[in-house]
Design goal:
It comes from Leptospira andrefontaineae. There is one protein chain. The chain is mostly beta strands. It folds into 2 domains: 95 residues, no CATH class; 74 residues, no CATH class. It has 1 helix and 21 strands. The strands form 7 sheets. The protein has a 4-stranded antiparallel beta sheet with strand order 4-5-6-7, with no helix packed on it. The protein has a 4-stranded antiparallel beta sheet with strand order 13-14-17-18, with no helix packed on it. About 8% of the residues have low confidence.
Amino acid sequence: MDRKIYPLVILAFLPLLAFCSKKIQLTAFEENGVYGYKDQNGKVQISPQYSLAYDFNENGVGFSFSKDGWICIDSQNKVLLNTFTFDNGPDYFSEGLARFVENSKFGFFDASCKKVISANYDFAFPIREGFSIVCNGCKSVSDGEHSTIEGGKYGLIDKAGKIVVQVEYDFLSEINPETKTLLGSKGGSKQEIRLP
């Protein structure tokens, strides 16, 4: 093949590559009180079956409310994970990650619903300043409208899931962003913990 034709061939295939790499974005619709998804041409891709549904995001996943709570699905209606429910919806993203629940344990996922941090904790707080306070042996206690986390041992993980502060404290404060420190309490004594 003539070398002058290579650039033309590449230019001809670029639109096709861009089209193929684009994730399918489906739009939620309601029919008889339940929600499903249609494609950009109005063709039903996922039949109505959900109590609530959000449009698919740019990563090709959608959040829907099923009998199992809030779930993340792909365009084939495959359940990718069960999100943690926060304020009557799927957990919000904080610093690019949100929480999911698997076997009653908490982990974190990204905007593509890819599990980034395995579900190893009884509870995990949202990512703040690049870290999450996690606990084991703790439980959620409801007062009817709100819930608090009580008991257990607390530690700190980073956005990659690496344990930065061992899960052995009775209490951990929020991180002070200016000093990159937090306070920990263990066995009645308090100490300042400096982050790496």
